[in-house]
TrEMBL record:
Keywords: Membrane, Transmembrane, Transmembrane helix
Sequence intervals crossing the membrane: 6-24, 31-51, 71-90
Keyword Transmembrane helix among UniProt keywords: yes
Keyword Membrane applies: yes
Organism per entry: Aeromicrobium senzhongii
Name this protein carries in UniProt: Uncharacterized protein
Length: 132
């Protein structure tokens, strides 16, 4: 895919910061479960589509048969859901850590930190990206 331009990196960083302000760790259990399940379904479905119908996503390769594509999609979906579940727990723990340290606006701190890290990592990717 390649790295983003500096302007694209800034937009992604700002979006990351805005999303990081949302206190998903404090959301009701059903909302958290829906976010985790939705993440898994979207990731698994996207992988299945990319393998079984590669032309839909612009790949020029032979389609993978439905069963193997579904199995791979299920594994990717489960991994994405698991990663999201861990992320929700880490979000809650990070916020509580900041609150215990007396930070007045922990969500704002997390948003700024998320935006800054996103931009830095994208800038590093741009710097070290090699032409394929």
């Amino acid at each position: 895919m390649g790295a983003h331009s500096p302007r694209q990196s800034l937009v992604v960083a700002l979006a990351t910061g805005v999303v990081s302000v949302v206190p998903i760790g404090r959301a009701p259990r059903r909302v958290r479960a829906a976010v985790v399940a939705g993440t898994g379904l979207v990731a698994g479905g996207a992988m299945f589509t990319a393998l079984n119908r590669p032309h839909v996503v612009g790949f020029e390769q032979q389609p993978t048969p439905a069963r193997p594509a579904a199995a791979i999609g299920a594994v990717v979906g489960a991994a994405a859901a698991g990663a999201m579940a861990v992320g929700v727990v880490l979000d809650r723990e990070a916020e509580q850590f900041l609150v215990r340290r007396g930070v007045r606006r922990p969500r704002l701190v997390l948003g700024v930190a998320g935006a800054a890290l996103s931009y830095v990592f994208d800038a590093l990717e741009r710097r070290f990206d090699t032409a394929d």
